[in-house]
Write a structure and sequence with these properties.
Blueprint (H helix, E strand, L loop, with lengths): L3 H12 L6 E3 L2 E5 L9 E4 L8 H15 L3 E6 L5 H9 L3 E11 L12 E6 L2 H11 L6 H9 L7 E8 L2 E11 L2 E9 L8 H15 L4 E7 L3 H9 L1 E13 L4 H14 L12 E6 L7 E6 L5 H12 L3 E6 L1
Bound molecules: coenzyme A.
């Protein structure tokens, strides 16, 4: 926990760049609506007092409801008041996942870099985003959303790199440097080229670029206990502390239903108009890496346009988990 103050400050500044981020009573509501997953949509930097906590929580829930996101999420770090975490639990929030905030401890261990892998900086954001979306196994429609996320980072100290295995682009990494902290992001290898040392080469390259940029702290975050954590440990990263994502699904009231479709209209292209019989549908977003989300929507007795809009969910990679005919 040596670097918690510095790294939390870093995270706060990083998520402030997301296009839809706002501040609510001193907390930062990190928000990027086109990608409705907790990593891009959560509350951080909570420092409310016990007396104000209930009112603060209500303000946050109201804010999430107004955006049309189907959940509320808090990122709990060692700086979050423990009494606030108890309040979240009393209100039915559940821990969805934990992430290790890792820092490089000493010199990077450069053993076993595959010489068939080369890593080069790229300014071709289009090609980079396409590869990130594929590498993270996100729905291809999110490529456009990624382009929107990259834009506000222009002019900041962000660099993007591609890995080539025998001259074929197969992996990505980014480095964001600020206040002498180098944060390694977007490490991904296309599924069919994994376990060839590409992820290792990308991370090692990002470290050497971070050193060149004059940073004195090199960091990244990853799912605690996941496969990528093993990779980072092999290179010399150690977990400095853990953050948890506490999530509650919003109730699907009429208002929520209306704003959810409002959000769909605003953010997603109409890609499918497949017929869905009038029924209640349980949609599930199937990508665990991005945080699986389950959304239940009643389309029974809804007019046809509403049903067509529900079908856009299918076009965005949601699956019908169950239908209640
Ligand atoms: C994580 C990821 C980047 C690893 O890429 P990669 O090119 O396969 O990584 P490497 O070949 O360099 O793997 C290095 C070591 O990490 C560990 N590792 C990586 N993937 C693993 C897996 N699926 N299972 C077990 N260990 C794994 C192993 O120790 C491996 O060494 P080994 O192959 O000699 O056993 C890749 O799986 C990926 O793109 N995943 C999806 C995106 C993602 O989650 N990125 C991480 C964001 S924090």
């Amino acid at each position: 926990m040596k670097n918690v103050v510095r790294l939390e400050e870093f995270w706060n500044n990083f998520v402030r760049i997301f296009p839809d981020t706002v501040e609510v009573q001193g907390a930062i509501v990190a928000c990027f609506l086109p990608i409705p997953v907790t990593l891009f949509n959560h509350v951080t930097n909570v420092n409310t007092t016990e007396g104000r906590a209930e009112a603060f929580l209500k303000a946050i829930v109201d804010h999430f409801s107004s955006t049309g996101l189907p959940f509320v999420c808090f990122r709990v770090s060692p700086s979050t008041p423990p009494s606030f975490v108890s309040l979240l639990e009393r209100h039915g929030f559940e821990k969805e996942k934990e992430q290790s905030i890792m820092v490089l401890d000493g010199e990077p261990l450069g053993n076993g870099i595959n010489l068939r892998v080369t890593v080069k900086e790229t300014n071709d954001i289009d090609a980079f985003d396409r590869l990130v979306v594929k590498g993270f196994e996100m729905p291809s429609e999110w490529k456009e959303a990624f382009d929107k996320l990259v834009a506000p980072f222009k002019g900041k100290d962000v660099k993007h790199y591609l890995a080539y295995l025998d001259d074929r682009p197969v992996g990505t990494v980014s480095l964001f440097s600020t206040s002498k902290v180098g944060c390694i992001l977007n490490v991904s290898t296309l599924k069919e080229y994994r376990r060839n040392g590409v992820g290792t080469a990308l991370t090692a390259h990002a470290i050497s670029e971070s050193l060149k940029a004059g940073n004195n702290l090199h960091t990244l975050q990853t799912d605690r206990g996941g496969e990528a954590e093993k990779l980072y440990r092999k290179i010399g990263f150690k977990s400095d502390y853990t953050v948890s994502f506490f999530v509650k699904n919003l109730e699907y009231t009429h208002d929520f239903f209306e704003s959810f479709f409002g959000w769909l209209d605003k953010t997603l292209p109409q890609t499918q108009t497949q017929e869905i019989a009038g029924c209640d549908l349980l949609f599930e977003f199937p990508n665990e890496m991005c945080g699986a989300r389950v959304v239940q929507i009643s389309v029974r007795h809804q007019p046809k346009p509403r049903i067509e809009r529900a079908s856009t969910l299918l076009g965005q990679g949601f699956l019908i988990k169950k239908s209640f005919l």
